[in-house]
Amino acid sequence: RNARYDYGTAGSPTIENLESAWTHLTGAAGTVLSPSGLGAIALALLTTTKSGDHLLMPDSAYRPSRNFCLNTLAKFGVETTYYNPLIGSDIEGLIKSNTSTIFLEAPGSQTFEVQDIPAIVSVAKKHNIKTILDNTWATPIFFQAHKHGIDLSLEAGTKYLSGHSDLLMGLISANQETWPDLRKMYSSMAMLPGPEDCFLALRGLRTMHLRLKEAERKGIEMAKWLKNRPEVLRVLHPAFPECPGHEYWKRDFTGSSGLFSIVLDPKFNKSNLANMLDHMSLFSMGFSWGGYESLIIPFDCTEYRTATEWNPGGLTLRLQIGLEDIEDLKCDLIEGFERLNQVIC
C-alpha cells in the first residue's frame, strides 16, 4: 500500500533510477522527469507561481518559455515582466510585492548573454522569491546550479543527456526547501516520460561528460577559426571576452559546450545566406542541438525582444558543433562561405 508504483503515472523503476542518478549529479534534494524540456519549464513555473503572482523572465530566454508565459500563465492570472539578462543585482528594482519567481537562463538561448546568477539569487533570497534556472547549455557538469543557490534547475534531456537526438525529455532538480512543492505538482500533473526514453537517457548519462568535453574543445576551436574569417563580424561564445557576461562565465562555470552564435558581416543579405545554407553537406539545419551531428540555423530576435534591443549589426547564425571531424566541418563552412560571397542576381 505504501509502495511508489501503485499507479501507472507514479513512474517505474527505470524512471526512478534516472531520477536518482540526476539527483546525485546535481546535488539536489530530488528530481522529477517530464516528456520534454518545455514540459520541465512549464512544470517548474506551475510549481512556483499562482494566480495573482508576478514573474520575472530574462529577455534572452528560450522563446517557447516566453510563449508559455504569454499563452498559458497569463490565462491563470500570472503577470510576466521581461528583464535585461545583464541586469545583475539591479533586478531588485523590478520586484513587486507579489513577485514569486525569477527565471534565469545562462547563457541566453540564441544570443548567449551570461547572467550574474549569484547577484540575482542574493536579491531573490532577500525577498523570499524562488529562482528557476534553465541550465541546458552547461548541464550540471559545467555549472552546479544548487551550489549557487538556485531553487529549481531545468535540463532539456533531449539535448546533451541524450546525445543521440533520439528521445524527448526534461529534468527538474530541486533544493530541499522547494522539493516537496515540486513533487506535489508533478504528482498532480502526471507528466512523465516513457521507460524506453529513460533507458536511453541512462545510456547517454554514461558518456555525457566525455561528449561534453569534446564538444567544448571543438566548439572553442571552431569559434576561434570563425572569429578570423572575413565573413564573420563577431562571435557570441561565453568563453570569449567579447561575449556579454563573459566575466560571469569565467567566474562561475567550469566549462562551455558546443553551442554558440556568430554575427555575419552586414554586407550579406538573406539571399546570400539562403544560398549558403541550402547546400551545406555536414551541417544540417535544425533547432534541437546536443546530439552528435552539427547543426546551423539562422535566427532573429528583433520581433519578440521587449526589454532590450537586439541589434547585432548583421545576420546571425547559431551553430551546434557535433562530433564530426573538425577539419571536415571547416571545409563545409568554407564552401558555404564561398556561396555566401556569390553575387545574387
Structure write-up:
35% of the residues lie in helices and 17% in strands. The longest helix has 20 residues, at 208-227. The termini are far apart. α4 (117-126) links the parallel β4 and β5 (130-134). The model has no long low-confidence stretch (mean pLDDT 95). The chain folds into two domains: 8-205, 3-Layer(aba) Sandwich (Aspartate Aminotransferase, domain 2), CATH 3.40.640.10; 208-340, Aspartate Aminotransferase, domain 1 (Alpha-Beta Complex), CATH 3.90.1150. With 345 residues, the chain is an alpha/beta fold. The chain is built from eleven helices and twelve strands. A seven-stranded mixed β-sheet has the order 1-7-6-5-4-2-3, with helices on both faces.
The total count of helices amounts to: 11
What CATH architecture label of the largest domain applies? 3-Layer(aba) Sandwich
Q: What do we call the CATH topology of the largest domain?
A: Aspartate Aminotransferase, domain 2
- Separation, N- and C-terminal Cα atoms: 74 Å
Radius of gyration: 20 Å
The coarse silhouette is globular
The helicity comes to 25-40%
Task: Give the number of DSSP strands.
Answer: 12
The level 1 CATH classification of the largest domain is Alpha Beta
Look at the structure and give the mean pLDDT: 95
Q: What's the helix and strand layout?
A:
Blueprint: H1 13-26, E1 30-34, H2 37-48, E2 54-58, H3 63-71, E3 79-83, E4 99-105, H4 117-126, E5 130-134, H5 139-142, E6 152-156, E7 170-174, H6 179-189, H7 195-205, H8 208-227, E8 232-236, H9 246-252, E9 259-264, H10 270-277, E10 284-285, E11 295-299, E12 316-320, H11 326-340
Parallel strand pairs: 2-3, 2-4, 4-5, 5-6, 10-11
Antiparallel strand pairs: 1-7, 6-7, 8-9, 9-12, 11-12
Helix pairs in contact: 1-7, 2-6, 10-11
